[in-house]
Amino acid sequence: MTISKRGFLALACAATLAAAPIHAFAADWQPRKPIDFVIMAGAGGGADQIARFIQSVAEKKGLTRRPLVPNNKGGGSGAEALIHLTTVNDPDHTILVTLNSFFTTPIRQENLGIDIMTFTPVAMMGVDPFVLWVHKDSGITTVDQFVETAKSMNGEYVMGGTGSGQEDSIVIAYMSDAFGIDVKYIPYDGGGAVAKDLAGKQIMATVNNPAEAKGFYEAGDFVPLLAFSDERMAAYPDVPTIKELGHDFSYYNQRAVVGAPGMSDEAAAYYRDLFTQIYESEEWQGYLASESLSPLWMNAEEQATYWTKQVETHRKLLAALGG
Predict the structure, then answer these.
(1) How far apart are CA 92 and CA 268, in angstroms?
(2) DSSP result, 118-149
(3) Rounded CA gap, 260 and 92, in Å?
(4) Please, which of 102, 160, 207, 245 could form a disulfide with 203 given CB 3.0 to 4.6 Å?
(5) What are the tens digits of pLDDT across the range 18-55?
(6) Is 132 exposed, middle or buried (CB count within 10 Å of its CB: 0-12, 13-18, 19+)?
């Protein structure tokens, strides 16, 4: 689809970074079988990478007697995953790694009948900024060159992103409006596929999260042009933020774990304790730093409040987008 929407709302989705968590009380409940660790995106993207890293930390430290089994369900902009969680027979053994599509997909697809407030808060593990990337062979090294090139192509400049009407397309739509450009947008099931197609020059630019583009950046294939964070990122000190260019906007992808609706209090307490331990581990704190994620911890009550605010914010963003 072609994205250009005048008057797109400059709403920031950044949250105040919180202090380290306090340990939850260990629950007597223990999993009796492997845990269905659902990922609401395809293989290779940020959510998938995080889920598999978390799995490795839990296994390495022997934190759970039954394994976390990653299960990619990225279809329908995450609708497949949301439906799966609401229809499982055993909610105590089903948890979900979420993106912001946790908020946007139920808004855009009301026929799903998904109410995210029925899900079980478990852990907010951090938030992930967005970065504008181009291929080195494009010759583009600045935002001005990117804008000039896109304008010269009169709507034929091709960008890719995860899903339609969710995180990547929201960022691209805001940027398109801010800089007065029209682009063609191609939706994918996950950020890994998006990054691979930029590497293969099937598309011309992306707004991948840093972890999704890191390997290609380190190989010298990708050039970062612009960050959609509140401040410049330590890993990319020379990359300006869109705020520096005069646009009051920042946008982050939530990296959270939630339980299925109907999960027992005992199972919820178990998972909250498990993910508190993972969050506080040297491995996870190192992952946050190496992958340019911002630490953000919330307890269950804070998460529920956060969800309410994010639904309201994304309703406004999607209305401005025309979605």
Answers:
(1) 8
(2) GSEEEEEEEEEE-EEEEEGGG---SHHHHHHH
(3) 7
(4) 160
(5) 445 544 444 589 999 999 999 998 888 888 999 999 99
(6) buried
- Taking the C-alpha atoms of residue 73 and residue 78, their distance in angstroms, rounded to an integer, is 7
Residue 303, token pair as written in the block:
């998460």
Tokens 């730093």 found at: 289
Place of tokens 């948890």: 95
Contact 258, 122 (CB under 8 A): yes
Q: Assess contact for 39 and 212: CB atoms under 8 A.
A: no
Per-residue model confidence (pLDDT) at position 6: 38
Residue 251 to residue 11: CA distance in whole angstroms: 8
Q: What is the C-alpha R_g of the chain?
A: 19
SS3 291: coil
The structure's pTM equals: 0.82
pLDDT, tens only, 98-136: 999 999 999 999 999 999 999 999 999 999 999 999 999
Distances (CA, A) of 47 to 16, 65, 267: 21, 23, 23
